[in-house]
Design a protein that fits this description.
By secondary structure, the chain is mainly beta. The protein folds into 2 domains: 84 residues, Chitinase A, domain 3; 49 residues, Beta Barrel (Thrombin, subunit H), CATH 2.40.10. 8% of the residues lie in helices and 41% in strands. It has 2 helices and 8 strands. It has a 4-stranded antiparallel β-sheet with strand order 2-1-8-3. Strands 4-7-6-5 form a 4-stranded antiparallel β-sheet, with no helix packed on it. A hairpin with a 5-residue loop joins strand 1 and strand 2. The longest helix is centred in the first third of the chain and has 7 residues. The radius of gyration is 19 Å and the shape is elongated. The relative contact order is 0.27.
């Protein structure tokens, strides 16, 4: 069976930046996704199409095909009072916030002063070339409920 839309795919992978630093990895078949449902970045999904169990390959994914280029307009100063008074806020901290359209976004604290906090709502991997070393471990047809929901369900059923 070759990977195509509506297949559930199990992968092992190691993700590195251009300096060879490991950013993320999934081994022992711990990464499972629904192909064609936009569950993974476009550049990797495109490279996985037509691969088979046992295939091993490396792919470099551009920011445009990954998490997008960095957008400087997503770095902004917000009033300190938007954060709880009793909370120590330090650069590098990550918070979940509500975006302009009500969506959940992740923001990273860049700088802190008495009056304001500089936050960055770019994805942590935006603007970075991503280097994947991938092995296809398993492929199966998706179940109808997985297709309806647009994602894989675990071995014990549905978990939302």
């Amino acid at each position: 069976m070759k990977i195509a839309d509506n297949h559930v795919v199990t992968l092992n992978y190691t993700l590195t930046d251009n300096d060879g630093e490991v950013i993320d990895q999934a081994q022992d078949g711990s990464f499972v996704y629904l192909h064609g449902a936009e569950n993974i970045i476009p550049g990797l999904e495109k490279e996985l199409t037509d691969k088979a169990v046992g295939d091993k390959f490396k792919v470099k994914v551009s920011p445009e095909e990954g998490y997008g280029p960095r957008d400087d307009t997503r770095v902004e100063d917000v009033p300190r009072e938007m954060f709880p008074e009793d909370q120590d806020i330090e650069p590098g901290m990550v918070f979940h916030a509500e975006g302009p359209n009500g969506e959940s976004i992740t923001v990273t604290v860049m700088e802190v002063s008495d009056q304001s906090v500089k936050i960055d709502s770019n994805h942590a991997l935006a603007g970075i070339e991503l280097n994947f070393d991938v092995e296809v471990m398993a492929i199966r047809d998706a179940e109808s409920v997985e297709l309806e929901h647009g994602h894989v369900h675990g071995p014990d059923g549905h978990h939302h």
